[in-house]
User: Fold this.
Amino acid sequence: MPLPKAHLLDELATAYVHALAAVAGATIAVSRRDYGVDGTIKQIATTDDDGYFETGFPVEFQLKGTAIERSASRSVAYDLRARNYNLIVARRVSATPFYLFLVCFGSDPAKWAVADTEVLALNASAYWWTDSGARTENAATVRIEIPAENRLTSNAIDVMLRASQARFVR
Assistant:
């Protein structure tokens, strides 16, 4: 029996972010119970004796997988639930950085994940968004515009992790 479309999008979006984080030299801990934070990315560093450790400067994320078509515009519009919006914008500045990761797969489910003998491809594009400020008074959703430059890549994850560390290490 196939997964419901929303669950399949969630699973594939998680795999997409897992892959990017691994390339960035990080690990992901996905929250088993979701209270607004879907997961944490932890940077891994090396010790002088070839060991590894978590740096202690993570970033947290809320993950959304969607089948919206990516247009040629300079931004991606997404209707985020008001509760989820408020969790991000109301995050204290002194807390762990908190991002929305939006993974866009397109409209054809047959193209979302394609496997052949040598390649597994997740055909998607991903973006990150964060903001701070006033909570919304909207009851249902808030339309956010994510600039096309906010592509979620392994380099973007590395930059987020370094910025997290820079906030706490002076």
